[in-house]
Fold:
Amino acid sequence: MRMPIVAAAIAALVMSLGAPGDSRAMDVSPMVAKITPSGSGSSYRLTVRNDSAAAATIEIEVYRMQVDETGARSLTPEDNDIVVFPVQSVIPPNREQVVQVRYLGEATSEGRMYLIRAAQLPINMQTTTADGEAGADIKVAFNINTYVFVAPASARGAVEVTSVSRAPNGDVLLSARNTGAGFAHLREAKFTLTTADGKTHEVPAADVDVGEVSVIAGGATRQIRIPAALAAAATGDVTASIALL
Structure:
């Protein structure tokens, strides 16, 4: 007897690609794109690969993205600023589809952030029981999110740490502001703690908690947490700096 099972959705985020051995049936690149609001740098190619043994129907969705001071994102469907072609396609097994992505919004000096989602429409997978009879019908879909950052080629980010404190558990808490006009990519930065005696302690950027989205827009602020284990060698009062690489 067949039993309907609620559709399962598996999402992969830009700054969290999953553990080694991830068995996703779909792969997307690039996960992060940096483009300009005009000129030859205002477009790029998004490649969607179907690694499964069956054809996959893919739909491309575009969202305008806002990020708050905790690094949490909010999304709004976007139909005008960015165009993609094709919007929907059927990709044969072990083949790939190239999607053209172009920015057509205003050529402003203000940076803009977008999320582009490659969404696989649900496919039916029927299971069988131990005695060979038809089992459950399972609907599976894979969604992979990628990020697009639009800013003039000349725009640069610069991060200023405005406050430093320690949480009761020993974590170091930073408040930082992007004083530049461009984006500040915190995963491409050098975090340094300096103790009262002048000794410096570098903290791996990959291990710092910067929120769901690791990018600060120009003029925006971000609350950052350095885990106590990474700051154990920097005892007492500390100052902090973040240098973009």
